[in-house]
Design goal:
alpha/beta; Rossmann fold; about 40% helix; 7 strands; binds adenosine-5'-diphosphate; 7-stranded mixed β-sheet; binds magnesium ion
Length: about 260
């Protein structure tokens, strides 16, 4: 467990894109692992009912007694929901399939957009001395994602290096703007990271050029390459940084972590 003698507010980053399969979960797990490896204290919050981030970090369904569902909808204390992972410095609040009904249950809740923010505004959290909270969002702009955006300091957007990659981005930016107006005026865009990049592929290079033209400095310099070791790691229930520390994927996520840390 992290040093509990210190108190500070972590930086909360929502990793989001309403498209599925773009590398949100992979980025959450491996950016989290890389930050932890670099000495940062990290909590990964799994907010996707599929629970892939939980599985990918070795928290199988049988080990998820309490989950982010309980945190949001059953007032479970934050510390009871957290679990350690095989990486020191990396904690996880796992998700279960219960979350798939949360979106509907939340609609009738007066505080529906603020439940996660409230759950994180507790002294126990400060005592954990975390540097970062990374939220793995579901592939939709539903109330779970809105909860993540309301609770977050910033948004990190994985963009798959494929055709139509930029298409969904305007909808996401619109949602960010709405959340700013309604609930979280200081919400920033942390950056856009290109994932599954293949430098030999014209299309990857074209998507990168388009993204840098349109979004400028918002696009991280670090690009995550398509790397088979990255896609194999979850079936061994570990981040690629543990599964194959010297792979191109591991190195890229370390670079991304350093670039993120430098931004402060
Ligand atoms: P999302 O959370 O946005 O739905 P995932 O992170 O689950 O996306 O990634 C979708 C699929 O792509 C997964 O099978 C994952 O293993 C694979 N994948 C993600 N990033 C890479 C990469 N850099 N290289 C190879 N495969 C990747
Ligand atoms: Mg996912």
């Amino acid at each position: 467990m992290p040093d509990t003698s210190q108190t500070k507010s972590p930086k909360v980053i929502a990793i989001t894109n309403q498209k599925g399969g773009v590398g949100k979960t992979t980025t959450t797990i491996n950016l989290g692992a890389a930050l932890a490896e670099q000495g940062k204290s990290v909590l990964l919050l799994d907010l996707d009912p599929q629970g892939n981030a939980s599985t990918g970090l070795g928290v199988g369904a049988e080990k998820r007694d309490l989950s982010t569902y309980d945190l949001l909808l059953d007032e479970a204390p934050l510390l009871d929901v957290l679990q350690e992972t095989d990486l020191s410095n990396l904690l996880i609040a796992p998700a279960t399939t219960d979350l798939s009904s949360a979106d509907i249950e939340l609609v009738s809740n007066e505080k529906r957009s603020h439940l996660l923010k409230d759950a994180l505004q507790v002294p126990e959290l400060l005592a954990l001395g975390l540097d970062y909270i990374l939220i793995d969002c579901p592939p939709s702009l539903n109330l779970l994602t809105v909860n993540a955006l309301v609770a977050a300091d910033s948004v990190l957007i994985p963009l798959q290096s494929e055709f139509f990659a930029l298409e969904g981005l305007s909808q996401l930016m619109l949602t960010v703007r709405e959340v700013r107006q309604a609930a979280n005026a200081d919400l920033r865009i942390e950056g856009v990271v290109l994932t599954m990049y293949d430098a030999r592929n014209n299309l990857s290079r074209q998507v990168e050029a388009d993204a840098r033209d349109n979004l400028g400095a918002l696009v991280f310099e670090t690009v995550i390459p398509r790397n088979v070791r990255v896609s194999e790691a979850p079936s061994f229930a570990m981040p690629v940084l543990m599964y194959d520390p010297n792979s191109k994927g591991s190195q890229a996520y370390r670079d991304l972590a350093r670039e993120l840390s430098k931004k402060a």
